[in-house]
Design brief:
Layout (H helix, E strand, L loop, with lengths): L1 E4 L14 H9 L3 E5 L10 H7 L2 E3 L2 H7 L2 E3 L17 E4 L7 H9 L3 E4 L14 H18 L21 E5 L3 H12 L3 E6 L2 H10 L5 E4 L2 H10 L2 E4 L14 H5 L6 E4 L20 E4 L2 E4 L9 H22 L1 H7 L1 H4 L2 E4 L2 E2 L2 H7 L6 H5 L1
Parallel strand pairs: 1-2, 1-4, 2-3, 4-5, 5-6, 7-8, 7-10, 8-9, 10-11, 11-13
Antiparallel strand pairs: 6-14, 12-13, 14-15
Length: about 375
């Protein structure tokens, strides 16, 4: 298979879809790799390493998109990339289509076979390609939040861990999944008081055991969320419904009731955000203030630590890339129900129910479109 790896063009997106190690294995198995010049540079993978692994370095993204049978990326295509779409192209990347109807429309119009990392499932029904970036984003959310709590960043001027004689900060985490668990690890490690809110009582029991009772757990309802938010110095949104828009758990009225200079980090912003006042931001302009509360809503948080993020992501995605390269993407989709869960569009048809529900579109099950 001829596989293309373009340089990411989303604002300050520094990750890359395949590492030199991945290129080497794919080439050894008879595949060809086209890598755009400097695609891996910001992840600390220079062109020389790709060349040594057997890739062909090309000067432009146009050549990668035009020649490749399958394009492997990190983030969803932005409008400047829509012109590269064409019938028969296989696109393997994060898509997060639910809040981006215009991208969905372009993929359908162009009859692209688009497979989204975030909806691929394993045999247990988990999301193996979302987990590594959720781990990074969860841990990073506390680092970012602690930084924006500083006075120079419009925060309360609070040290999250406190010092002897001065109490630590209060951290509230909405969602006890991968993001929430990793955020809690870092927040507790920094010495903060931590509360996790989740609707799944069994998950709250697990978290209480995992952390040995060192954090507080709350059942999710509007009363508990409002009270926890009002006490919080840092609030982290980590709620996910696979493929669908995130529910708005923290309302604008609740934000208004928070402390002045408190910080919100909405990790769910890729799926529309779980905070009513959250709007997508970029690494260039990462924050804004609403009712005195700092909002950090960057849609590609892990790009801040690209070497770690690229390695973590490609550890998970590469087996799927290799499988599609060896079988052909369509055969691989037919043979793997988990990979089929990742198929969002194919030959002009929407194949992801949560995206269809979020956008009011019709859809068909992936298996019906592949036969």
């Amino acid at each position: 298979m001829l596989i293309g790896v373009p340089k990411e063009v989303k604002n300050l997106e520094t990750r890359v879809g395949i590492t030199p190690a991945g290129v080497k294995e794919l080439v050894e198995r008879g595949n060809q790799l086209l890598v755009e010049k400097n695609a891996g540079l910001l992840s600390a993978f220079p062109d020389e390493e790709y060349l040594a692994a057997g890739a062909t370095i090309v000067a432009t993204a146009d050549e990668v998109w035009q020649r490749a049978e399958m394009v492997v990326k990190v983030k969803e295509p932005v409008p400047s990339e829509y012109g590269h779409f064409r019938p028969g192209l296989v696109l393997f990347t994060y898509l997060h289509l639910a809040p981006i109807p215009e991208l969905t429309e372009k993929l359908l119009e162009s009859r692209v076979t688009a497979i989204a990392y975030e909806t691929v499932e394993d045999s247990a029904g988990a999301l193996p390609l979302l987990v590594p970036m959720s781990e990074v984003a969860g841990r990073l959310s506390v680092q970012v939040g602690a930084s924006f709590l500083q006075h120079g960043n419009d925060g309360r001027g609070l040290l999250l861990g406190g010092v002897p004689g001065v109490p630590p900060g209060e951290v509230c985490i909405l969602g006890g999944g991968i993001v929430g668990t990793n955020a809690a690890k870092i927040a507790l490690g920094m010495g903060a008081n931590v509360t996790i809110v989740d609707k799944n009582l069994n998950r709250l029991r697990q978290l209480d055991d995992i952390f040995g009772g060192r954090l507080r757990t709350l059942a999710s309802n509007s009363w508990n969320i409002a009270n926890a938010a009002a006490k919080s110095d840092l609030l982290i949104g980590g709620v996910l419904i696979p493929g669908a828009s995130a529910p708005k758990l923290l309302t604008a009225a609740m934000v208004k009731g928070m402390k002045k200079g408190a910080v919100i980090v909405d990790v769910a912003i890729d799926q529309g955000g779980c905070i009513e006042t959250a709007v997508p931001t970029t690494h260039t302009a990462p924050s804004y203030v609403v009712d005195g509360v700092v909002h950090y809503c960057v849609t590609n948080m892990p790009a801040a630590v690209p070497n770690t993020s690229t390695l973590a992501l490609t550890n998970a995605t590469f087996p799927y890339v290799l499988n599609m390269a060896e079988q052909g993407a369509l055969e691989a989709l037919k043979n793997s129900s988990g990979l089929r869960k990742g198929l969002n569009t194919h030959n002009g048809v929407l194949t992801c129910a949560p995206v269809a529900e979020s956008q009011g579109r019709s859809w068909k099950p992936a298996i019906e479109c592949l036969n």
